[in-house]
Amino acid sequence: MEEHISDESGRQAGTNQARAVPLARGLSTKLLVLTVLFVMIAEILIFLPSVANFKLRWLEERLGTAAAVSVVLVDEDTESLPRTLQDDVLIAIGAKAIAVREDGVSRLLVIAEMPPEVDEHIDLERTGLVSAMSGALDTLLFGGDRMLRVFGKVGESPIEFELIIPDNRLREAMLVYSRNVALLSLVLSLFTATLVYAAIDRIMIRPIRAMTGSMLSFGRAPDDPGRIIVPESREDEIGVAERELADMQRQLQKTLGEQKHLADLGLAVSKINHDMRNILASAQLLSDRLRGVRDPSVQAVAPRLLRALDRAVSYSEGVLAYGRTQEPPPSRRRLRLRMLVEEVEDLLGLSGTDGVEFVNAIDPAFEVDADSEQLFRVLTNLSRNAVEAMAVDDGSAVVRRLTISAERMGSVSRILVTDTGPGLPRKARDNLFAAFRGSARSGGTGLGLAIAHELVRAHGGTLELVESIGGRTVFSITIPDQPVRLDEARSGFRRPA
Description:
Elements: H1 2-19, H2 27-73, H3 83-93, E1 97-102, E2 105-111, E3 120-123, H4 129-142, E4 147-153, E5 160-166, H5 168-220, H6 237-288, H7 296-322, E6 333-336, H8 337-348, E7 357-360, E8 367-370, H9 372-390, E9 401-409, E10 412-419, H10 426-430, H11 447-458, E11 462-469, E12 472-480, H12 486-493
Parallel strand pairs: 3-4, 7-9
Antiparallel strand pairs: 1-2, 1-5, 4-5, 6-8, 9-10, 10-12, 11-12
Helix pairs in contact: 2-4, 2-5, 5-6, 6-7, 8-9, 9-11
């Protein structure tokens, strides 16, 4: 026994460990990674116009410095300037040449050496955002050995200044700027991700983890009320989910309890019926001897007693097989319904002293297409329920009448079971065909209506409550005739007379 418990505990622990979500695949890790990724994508989208703006500002600063120098040199004779002074000016700016354009005429102010060609012309006044971003990426990725011609006006001056400058220092400055932006973006991403993770983990992940744990715990012991989740007092979607989960667990626990009781009852009934079958078999053997008695009263009762015992044995065997199979499909035949109702009356054993009047209002010629045994069980269950309901009224002046009538509408037979009882209570009407919940009296099981409903449905028909008020309750059984197959009908026409 101890080894068995140990094995069960080991298997349970293995199952719990298998159900545990690894950290790398958990929602927390996914949330952190996605937050960092999304922030980085946002930073990249911000970085493109930022680095383009950095390039333009860097060039504007150089052009502004060149303009300040040009204002001093524009009225001077630049050829008389010492070479060393020109070189110092160009080195300070990082340019190869400085020129001005006024009234369409260009004038070279300072030059170190004129490059053979210029790779890119940049008009600072007419450079748009898209061209600025594409140019910045081009310089950042492929620049470093290009020569740029930068021109534009500075301030309110009508003079246009030009600058010939290599892009190596520009690219170096852009790389440093990009590195700083990348590091800052990474820090901001981690910081933002941490804040977002902490907030969402508190608001969502922990409650979801608690619900997951509750479901796993409830699945291991659904009959334990302590395993039901306790919802938090919150009005958002998580609160709604927790309350719905708690309601579902309580409903499932109730249903499982009912199923367990039903299984226990089925086991007990099977054991009882096993012994009851043997007792009925003995009674059946004894009843066979009654056939040899010549007493007319015995001869009148003996066939009915034998039929009742045969049905009791058949029902006992059916109950024993109930746990293994469903009800057998109906073996349908054309039946005279009035004779079947008479057997129901005989089985109920009503007499004039009990105050219940049985009315068989079936036309002797009325026929129904059904299984005789199953339809007998349906009518017996409905009639017995009606008699038990009317027995509650003990007033001598109260009319207690059970009426079974029938009518045909084309190929459909409709049987009405009417009683003058007190009517069904609200709970019984709401759970009419549910076993153990649809009983109309205290201590009842509701199995009669549940079985009757199942048997009628097997015939392709319906069982419904037509009316239930004080003094009148009507159940309707609707059974359609079997459809006639065309090939069978044709073969019947070809049979010889």
